[in-house]
Amino acid sequence: MQPDELALSFPCAGDWLTGILSPAGDAPQRGVLIAVGGPQYRAGSHRQFALLARSLATRGIPALRFDYRGMGDSTGEQRDFTDVDADLRAAIDAFCARVPSLREVVIWGLCDAASAALFYAGQDERVKGLVLLNPWARTEAGLAGTTLRHYYRARLLQPDLWRKLVSGRFDWRAAAGGFFRLAGKALRRPASAPAESPGLHERMLRGMRAFGGNVLLIDSGNDLTAREFLDMAGASPAWRRLLAAPQVQRRTLAEADHTFSRRAWRDQVADWTADWVRAW
């Protein structure tokens, strides 16, 4: 922890969540809640969440990162991103209580945390902005189609593939088998979800429709998760309309991987986030 950071413990449905607040400025009115994606805790992959929170704080934007129930230092049973509404609400309650000047909260989420933010945002009037990075829209057919469209196309342009072909070291049978298995999955019609239990794509769409605030969508150019979300959204007239709305800004880091693992990528994401949060 940095000397000015504060460790928080706050209740959530009978359990206790642990968070770290990076305070900033005098009476800030807008802060960023960093939601955790995947089975990890509040530091994030290669400490991205810790470094992001500190970067935002130095620019006058307070930030809170925290552990969901059952992760890191929080108590309770572990759950996945489809069941963290109560955790997000508890964290925002604690954030606003500790920084009484806050009037607006931005939820920042990478991967399935972006999807969780979409599920939750429309239920809480304090949430005025979302930063969504490589949202998780994974289905078996979607992944197969995205792999066929993006991985195999890129593979054809790689010199080592053609060197293997010329040298006779290319395994045609294995390659063809993998290709046709993916093609079969891509063409498979997804099972219909019951109306009372919408599927992932429908739940994300409902969340986006219900949220009337500002959105910053950041995608990595070298990430199948991001490609799968963009392929899904591009094939949907409803998603195309929502993403074309004036309150939605989009940024792409062409070379970046899923977690923005290089310092230059991580810093670029922090810069885009801070500039956007202060712009409206």
From TrEMBL:
<dbReference type="GO" id="GO:0016787">
    <property type="term" value="F:hydrolase activity"/>
</dbReference>
<keyword id="KW-0378">Hydrolase</keyword>
<dbReference type="InterPro" id="IPR017531">
    <property type="entry name" value="Hydrolase-1_PEP"/>
</dbReference>
<dbReference type="Pfam" id="PF12697">
    <property type="entry name" value="Abhydrolase_6"/>
</dbReference>
<dbReference type="InterPro" id="IPR000073">
    <property type="entry name" value="AB_hydrolase_1"/>
</dbReference>
<dbReference type="InterPro" id="IPR029058">
    <property type="entry name" value="AB_hydrolase_fold"/>
</dbReference>
<protein>
    <submittedName>
        <fullName>Hydrolase 1, exosortase A system-associated</fullName>
    </submittedName>
</protein>
<feature type="domain" description="AB hydrolase-1">
    <location>
        <begin position="46"/>
        <end position="271"/>
    </location>
</feature>
